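hey so u asked for the seq, here:
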Amino acid sequence: MNSSTPVITFHNIEKNFGSLKVLKGISGEINRGEVVAVIGSSGCGKSTLLRCFNRLEKIDSGHLTVNGINLSHPQFNQKQLRQLRTQVGMVFQQFNLFPHLTVLENLILAPCKVLGKTRKESTQQAGFYLEKVGLFDKASAYPQQLSGGQKQRVAIARSLCMNPQIMLFDEPTSALDPELVGEVLQVMQELATEGMTMVVVTHEMQFAREVAHRVIFMDKGIVAEQGPASEVISNPRSDRLRTFLSRLNGVVGRWGE
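ran it, structure tokens below
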């Protein structure tokens, strides 16, 4: 990890939904090759922050730069948005696969349409990433024929087919049965080992402690605590974080068992 090279910087950013203030002037940065876990209770703003990083949500004030693209510039345009979306992959809770397309077709659609790659080139790349996530034999299957864990691994492979420099994960295991969580987190751990820059909103504390370099704990729209993963999770400084972690007792550790 090159800790001296920030690829995401945000300063005093705010995001409101009507009268509801969701992000309340938060600041920070994500460095190249770093894995950052964002934790916190439901409604604290962590998923909104993640969605701001790829412009699924537009910030209301502050400064936000992702991979050299200024998302807060008044003249931010569609060309920059397309550039951003090719550089930043995102994996959602609910997979978001196209149900009428096979696994292979899901993977090659964006490289062909957005990147202008040939079908042959895209198919070869899709095969590589399906092999990487252990689903090469499912290329001709449809999403409804897959388990939740398989769907999420396909969704990760689909993002990788765009050759992103940054990967965002929004609670990627929250919709999965407990026995399927491990297979998805294993793929994410391998990506981290290979040096992919990753921001992961998660409730999987063992994964955060063992794989993330750093943890950001959000509470009511602010960054309440952050630091090295093992330090923040094992020795929380604030009562709020201690309370949050104590509520998760019982699910911590399940993915590695």
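The two ends are 27 Å apart (CA to CA). The first strand starts at residue 6 and ends at 17.
lmk if thats what u needed
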